[in-house]
Amino acid sequence: MRRDHVRDLLHQVANGSLEVSKALDALALEPVESLPFASIDHHRSLRQGFPEVIYGAGKTPQQIAEIALRIVSRGDGLLVTRLAPAAAEQLRATISDIQINEVARTAYLAGTEPAPRGTGTVTIVTAGTSDLPVAEEAAVTLDALGNCVGRITDVGVAGIHRVLAKHDELMSASVIIVIAGMDGALPSVIGGLVRAPVIAVPTSVGYGAAFGGIAPLLTMLNSCAAGVTVVNIDNGFGAAVAASRITHS
Amino acid sequence: MRRDHVRDLLHQVANGSLEVSKALDALALEPVESLPFASIDHHRSLRQGFPEVIYGAGKTPQQIAEIALRIVSRGDGLLVTRLAPAAAEQLRATISDIQINEVARTAYLAGTEPAPRGTGTVTIVTAGTSDLPVAEEAAVTLDALGNCVGRITDVGVAGIHRVLAKHDELMSASVIIVIAGMDGALPSVIGGLVRAPVIAVPTSVGYGAAFGGIAPLLTMLNSCAAGVTVVNIDNGFGAAVAASRITHS
Amino acid sequence: MRRDHVRDLLHQVANGSLEVSKALDALALEPVESLPFASIDHHRSLRQGFPEVIYGAGKTPQQIAEIALRIVSRGDGLLVTRLAPAAAEQLRATISDIQINEVARTAYLAGTEPAPRGTGTVTIVTAGTSDLPVAEEAAVTLDALGNCVGRITDVGVAGIHRVLAKHDELMSASVIIVIAGMDGALPSVIGGLVRAPVIAVPTSVGYGAAFGGIAPLLTMLNSCAAGVTVVNIDNGFGAAVAASRITHS
Amino acid sequence: MRRDHVRDLLHQVANGSLEVSKALDALALEPVESLPFASIDHHRSLRQGFPEVIYGAGKTPQQIAEIALRIVSRGDGLLVTRLAPAAAEQLRATISDIQINEVARTAYLAGTEPAPRGTGTVTIVTAGTSDLPVAEEAAVTLDALGNCVGRITDVGVAGIHRVLAKHDELMSASVIIVIAGMDGALPSVIGGLVRAPVIAVPTSVGYGAAFGGIAPLLTMLNSCAAGVTVVNIDNGFGAAVAASRITHS
Amino acid sequence: MRRDHVRDLLHQVANGSLEVSKALDALALEPVESLPFASIDHHRSLRQGFPEVIYGAGKTPQQIAEIALRIVSRGDGLLVTRLAPAAAEQLRATISDIQINEVARTAYLAGTEPAPRGTGTVTIVTAGTSDLPVAEEAAVTLDALGNCVGRITDVGVAGIHRVLAKHDELMSASVIIVIAGMDGALPSVIGGLVRAPVIAVPTSVGYGAAFGGIAPLLTMLNSCAAGVTVVNIDNGFGAAVAASRITHS
Amino acid sequence: MRRDHVRDLLHQVANGSLEVSKALDALALEPVESLPFASIDHHRSLRQGFPEVIYGAGKTPQQIAEIALRIVSRGDGLLVTRLAPAAAEQLRATISDIQINEVARTAYLAGTEPAPRGTGTVTIVTAGTSDLPVAEEAAVTLDALGNCVGRITDVGVAGIHRVLAKHDELMSASVIIVIAGMDGALPSVIGGLVRAPVIAVPTSVGYGAAFGGIAPLLTMLNSCAAGVTVVNIDNGFGAAVAASRITHS
Amino acid sequence: MRRDHVRDLLHQVANGSLEVSKALDALALEPVESLPFASIDHHRSLRQGFPEVIYGAGKTPQQIAEIALRIVSRGDGLLVTRLAPAAAEQLRATISDIQINEVARTAYLAGTEPAPRGTGTVTIVTAGTSDLPVAEEAAVTLDALGNCVGRITDVGVAGIHRVLAKHDELMSASVIIVIAGMDGALPSVIGGLVRAPVIAVPTSVGYGAAFGGIAPLLTMLNSCAAGVTVVNIDNGFGAAVAASRITHS
Amino acid sequence: MRRDHVRDLLHQVANGSLEVSKALDALALEPVESLPFASIDHHRSLRQGFPEVIYGAGKTPQQIAEIALRIVSRGDGLLVTRLAPAAAEQLRATISDIQINEVARTAYLAGTEPAPRGTGTVTIVTAGTSDLPVAEEAAVTLDALGNCVGRITDVGVAGIHRVLAKHDELMSASVIIVIAGMDGALPSVIGGLVRAPVIAVPTSVGYGAAFGGIAPLLTMLNSCAAGVTVVNIDNGFGAAVAASRITHS
Predict the structure, then answer these.
(1) CA distances (Å), origin A204, targets A201, B1, C177, H202
(2) Phi then psi for B131, rounded to 5 degrees?
(3) What is the DSSP letter of F211?
(4) d(CA F58, CA F82)
(5) DSSP for E104-149?
(6) Rounded CA gap, A133 and A82, in Å?
(7) What is the pLDDT of residues G204-225, one digit of tens each?
(8) Do C230 and A221 count as a contact with CB atoms less than 8 A apart?
(9) What residues in chain D have their Cβ under 8 A from chain F's Cβ atoms?
């Protein structure tokens, strides 16, 4: 709860315009809407610039639809990630103009007020074609949060000239999200080329000793290019939010 | 980019036969063809003797077919690995004379020029029948890259005489690829018998504490026979390329 | 190599002021100084705003001192991390006015030109007293890279009011570095409180199933607060560089 | 075997009311009913206050039904966990008034005597909606064992005010079961707020480096709030039994 | 912060006995004493019945001594765990009547008011002699927190009669802490014998595939005796606090 | 190859009854029958008392059937493990009087000569009903190899009296195979009760931190009962062969 | 407790030669001697043919010496393993004619009655010179337990002829203990050559991805030679006891 | 044993020039010299072109010296790796003109006949200064085995231009050994640049989540450059032998 809000409440109590019991309620009250299966945090938008995002995995289509309706009914922007096909169907039936992205597995509906714009461009770089679903999740999220998005696709380090050919584009980005599976080596190369913040996303692409993304995750945590940060495996959403924190700071 | 190519460009600029802006473009230009979902590296053939190989996992049938067409349209040889049945169908429909190998899960079409021949024979040894799909992937790749292929099948160390009976065949190989799951002990025995390079491939065959190939992977990395090298679990393709690097050096 | 540099070289060749062979050399030449045991990247300052930082682990005191002298002799700023006591002694003997920080295990000497200033304050938050060496490494690095540094110490989530009491300080930071061992839960709480970028650093503090930092590393990668990014275990240096990339972007 | 029971037997032997051979049998006899595929421990109720609970995983529907019938035929309470749909069908067909809970994957039938009541309320707290099946398994078990159950749902630490808003409810609980996936940070915060016993349950909710629950498991084992204990991943049943041991002690 | 405290403050503001600015301070003020390297939580005693315990690992002797003095100067009870010999020396020199336990690696000084007594006896059971340091840490902590302590030593399951011989003692305990390394099987046996809460502590005793305590940790998490809870490896302190939460609830 | 066989060959060469080239062939010849996908070791029976057993996993039904026919055609006993339903069908169609055991997933046909009898009884003990498929695989294998088999089912250590009640049966066994998932504690208890060899088999039964059998595997490797040996997870076959090596020695 | 002993007690009670209270004591009494830090199991010799062996790791020299004296004072044989040098000194000072083996890190003193002889020879095979300490621990233990010991040293599979040259010696063994680090492949080869029971011991010899013995442990658990059993890493003692269970059965 | 050797023996037997018993001995005799602690394989030179190399770790100085003397006394070349300082002293005292390399931790003495020369140059590339000990071990081994050695030092991918500047040198190598710790990304870049065989060596350089070399090991196994092979962590020796197998094939 914000300090100036508390100050206002206290002044109202001091000048008699607010009863103690009501101030107490206000101090205790949290802007949380409780469903039997969820506590919706309607003030997250105030705190963090975008309403609570629904993580679709492990929720039933009914649960997702109901939470979504509560958010939309307030005019807030809606974003759902990790959306299974059945839940996408349900959402389409419930909220007519919702935008489903099947590659990204997301649902999106803009709020009544546009999201504040971030500075510059967030460039998403992928090492391979198989990393595209993660890139798409990042792109949808960045867009929802008010960012310009650039893309460089399929420039793995085994063809290092493909990366170098994109030098100018890389240099002009505000933030770079680098998405790679297998050896996860791309963020090290890009981190050494640019000054901008680099957020690395390991993907579960690869087989055998890639261990579902552990190999690129470790590579990225150990990047010899200083100042590369890392998010969870396949977490395009998290990388986008991290980038958006930067472009909105 | 090759140094002699740069030298030629500079001479053309010096003698006025090439404008600065065009030389600049040429220096910047990379022989990469960009699709919305892939960057095809058409110069890999120059650099490494075979065009870019398509790794089928994580790509849609449409993506694979489109990339394949671009490669074939230049007369380059085509090799696709980890090909799912649906993608194989699509390829068969798109490129009439393509060769699908269902055990190896590969698609292959020779280029207009034959691949340069490697020296000697690459012998593929498997410890058990269950290792055959990996062996087949290696065999198809070796063949595509211009190598003679020999095979010794199902000679695990629990019947050590089966290995020893193949002594002459092993001694005459240029490179030996040893494929084993479970205890992964075969490369240690063969590596101690021969002078030739030995490339070990762990497979995900086995149960329980084989952990999807970790057990034989660790065995092979710790081989008490010096000079055995290892590739990723089930990576018959990688072993074949490594062997072909040797036979073409 | 920068594109405008290439353009200039080409123009010089075109107007005859530069011979082809010399241009060729220039294109090939890299601003790297080679010692028998190291290749010093003197252009890193141009590319990334600070000269190459010496990672002290695994290098002999003699190697560190020699590399340091080469950097200092150019007037560049010097930063050495993971400095063992013996190497610190050697540096003190070699470079008289160097600043050794024993808690941070760093050596620092400002360059002849001050580092460009970053915007705002980078606030370093630690969960416990035992995390201080990592925090100190981050602080020294941030300072060397031209950043204002704030600190909040020993505010683990088991006393959640200690965190909440620092709300205003947290809200005013440009970037927050959160350092925690054991359960690594602090970044999740702080990430949910603020809009600013949050960089989490797991430490090897803790025993038993903390596994030398794996436990907080996993916690942070799985933070339920969206947009928290993570660096390697005990990597205060990396977190500082990542923060500085943001404050200088 | 209880000491007073042995004493009685010995007295009966001493006064001739029991033959040696029968006493020997009694000492050897265990209240275990043997089926070809199971040994049912009918005295567990005496030892532990509730009959043996059937762990449904890995048993066929026929096996489950047969064991269930033996328990019910004695008038004991019946609880089955990890019940697959097919086994649930079979149980419904076999025991008419059984209560199937599909979310919890349990079957329950009260015994002829009510379970002894535990003191106070056991409050189940979940970090997210996706943790509900585990919470439900805990709730059904607690109820079967004679406990009052409270619930606080979806109060992850990324919205710390949601937790704090439940402060009074948390303070009044006898035992708190905290269920969380992903970063598993919630038990650390709650453990620092309350004096009551806190039992943490990691869930397999999350993706990537959550590793099927390893991440929250490690977080909880390393909780910086002293005195938090942990049960197996997704083990709502185990947490409930642990809580019930406390409320019945 | 407690709700009744907030209510009082608000009433004082309403009746003019407290200025807004001071109330604001009070609401913001936390009972935390800040040293440059630590934030001491003096209200933990109120919240949890015992003052903050100092975790000695990773702190310098000076830091420990300074924090200890602040706690002692308020008349609070002092407990330090994981105390290195040098820090023990420093404490002995600083606080004359402190009790150092070298096996447990603890320092203890009772507060001016005795700790509230817990109900019943907490019995500590060890599987082997090598587990004694962990048992001793638990015993010192239990004593400091106001509990009666019982002990059963060296009763591993390989001599199952040693466990059974202690049946009566086990049955009479309020809470049982079971400490075991190697196979960690003892809690499963005891958990099946008694109704009381059982807290299992894995130790790093053992070699080879005990992996520093991972083996018994996993055993205990998977205990086939329902309702056994687990704390971190070698965490005698944590088990004692967990037990004390139960005896004081 | 046996030394006396070599001696005979050499004598035949010496007395002229065998040509050098034929002796050379004989020395090189191994009693291995080569199919395109398998090398059948027909002398294993001589070396180890039972023909090569077919490990069904990873082999096609056709491959299994063809190898089986070769073995049966020589009058050798046939045993197939890890048999998928489709392969079982194919075998039934190919070899009319084959015995399929669906729980054990085995196929068996006795050889023309009975297997040599082992001494005493091999007793198979399981901790739970869910361990039965592994027990069944062990039982079928033991029977095929000529052993008497005893069984004790569902006697987990959480009901320790169930184990103790079987004391006489355990004491009379020649070899004991103990099969357990979850905490895997049963072999420690039994290993402490008996003098006979104890072979422990971890199973993949359990959830969460059982990690597919790693937990009981580690428990068993760390058994505090000396002299317990361990085989791979779910490897009932291997335990049976190990036991049979003992009963036939 | 043995059944015939119970029978005798009961008969004595029945004929009045034993009071109930004394019988009760006898039934409760266990042949366990309790020190403050240990419970010595004096009946283990009856149950398992050799008195309790002292595991030296984690015990102080004083504890070891005191336990040793209690065992020796009864005329039982004494064996201590994992004996640190300081404890060895203490033992030498306490028990004059004790035999210390520094390579094996054992102390041994024969009992007043010789250990019963096992049948045949237990042959210890090592893959390399570095495995000798583990082999020595096994040899001392085997000798103490009454077995004949054979040895084959340094016959790793990289020189497979070194193994084959020992064929006759291997064939004549009753039990074979195979000790190997690194790739741990030797038990697979030997297990395929012989019919006798094979017990594999992984050692922590090797570097890098041997991971302190995990690599050979996994190799051995996955041995393609059926019926190889495994003990803990470096556990020469355990292998010897397992072998002795076989030779005494 | 070589086939032609057997043929000769058989002819000698056939023509009476060799008795059966002597031929039998010859067939049985292996060129192995047995010490009490080692079996020296004097024929390895014949089989593999260099005598058995002594792995120094885990052997006493006395053992190493004795084995070394046996090898040197035959005029064979001597190579010892992983040589501890004490063992180096002992060797220097025993064999006067031995060459000790302290960085590489090796001892070397050329044989009376020079090692056969390999074709071309083996180029050793390191990512950082801290990788030099591993590189030095590789260089000493390559030299001992008769290879020309080239070196490129400290060219990590974070300064990609340092790698590219060495393009010509890389292109002219016969085999390239790439040594890297931390992110282990260098082999992927180099593998994509050259056609020659590339052998990757992960090192234990790095901290935190490098896990003693696991991170670069996984990176290299998952290299997106096809045909890169991998050896064990820090295994410069193994990489050199693998390279020498190629240059001598």
Answers:
(1) 10, 32, 27, 22
(2) -85, 0
(3) G
(4) 9
(5) TTEEEE--SSPPPPPSSEEEEEESSGGGHHHHHHHHHHHHHTT-EE
(6) 11
(7) 988 788 889 999 999 999 999 9
(8) yes
(9) 1, 28-30, 32, 34, 36-39, 41, 43-44, 52, 55, 57-59, 63, 67, 82, 202, 204, 213-214, 217, 232-235
pLDDT at B199 over 60: yes
Rg of chain A on CA atoms, in Å: 21
> Residue B205 has what DSSP assignment?
-
Task: Report residue E227 CA to chain centroid gap.
Answer: 20
Angle between helical axes of A20-28 and E3-14 (0-180°, round to 10):
140
Q: Name chain C contacts of E82, Cβ cutoff 8 Å.
A: 207
Each residue of B61-110: pLDDT tens digit?
999 999 999 989 888 889 999 999 999 999 999 999 999 999 999 999 99
Question: What's the token pair of residue G32?
Answer: 């366990």
At residue C46, the pLDDT reads 55
| D180 touches C185 (CB < 8 A) | no
Cβ-contact A53, A106 below 8 angstroms: no
Is the separation of the CB atoms in F235 and B207 below 8 Å?
yes
Q: State how beta strands F78-81 and F54-55 pair.
A: parallel
CB contact under 8 A, C175 and A53: no
Cα–Cα distances (Å) from B10 to A83, B20, D60, D109, F121, in that order, read 55, 9, 78, 88, 88
What is the spatial distance between Cα A135 and Cα A179, in angstroms, rounded to a whole number? 7
What span, in angstroms and rounded, lies between the C-alpha atoms of F193 and F123? 14
Q: Cα separations (Å) of C83 from C58, C86, C90, H128, H208?
A: 10, 8, 11, 16, 16
Tokens of B10: 């500079």
Q: What is the tens place of the pLDDT at every residue in G23-58?
A: 766 664 446 677 778 777 766 665 666 777 999 998
What are the chain B neighbours of C24 within 8 Å (beta carbons)? 3, 6-7, 10
* Look-up of token digits 């009898």: F117
Token pair in block for residue A204: 């579960």
E15 CB-near residues (< 8 Å, 6+ apart): none
Measured over all CA atoms, what is the biggest interatomic distance in chain G, rounded to whole angstroms?
A: 73
CA distance A2 to F55: 67
Residue B65 sits at φ, ψ, to 5 deg, of -65, -40
DSSP 8-state assignment for residue B198: E
SS (H, E, C) B49-85: CCCCCEECCCCCHHHHHHHHHHHHHCCCCEEEECCCH
From chain H, pick out residues whose CB is under 8 angstroms from the CB of C213.
208-209
Residue linked to tokens 């009870």: E77
DSSP-derived secondary structure for chain G: --HHHHHHHHHHHHTTSS-HHHHHHHHH--SEEEETTEEEETTHHHHHSSPPPEE-TTS-HHHHHHHHHHHHHTT--EEEES--HHHHHHHHHHSTT-EEETTTTEEEE--SSPPPPPSSEEEEEESSGGGHHHHHHHHHHHHHTT-EEEEE-S--GGGHHHHHTTHHHHHT-SEEEEEE-TT--HHHHHHHH-SS-EEEEE-S-S-GGGGGGHHHHHHHHT-SSTTEEE--TT-HHHHHHHHHHHHT-
Question: Of C101, C59, C55, C103, which Cα lies nearest the Cα of C80?
Answer: C55
ipTM of predicted complex: 0.86
- State the CB neighbour count (10 A cutoff) for residue E171: 15
Structure tokens at C194: 């603020």
Quick one: which of C57, C53, C84, C49 has its CA closest to C67?
C53
- Paired sense of beta strands D175-180 and D121-126, if any: parallel
Write the CB contacts of C5 (distance below 8 Å, at least 6 apart in sequence).
none
Burial string for C147-181 (b: 16+ CB within 10 Å, else e) reads bbbbbbbbbbbbbbbbbbbbbeebeebbbbbbbbb
pLDDT tens for residues D140-182? 999 999 999 999 999 999 988 889 889 889 999 999 999 999 9
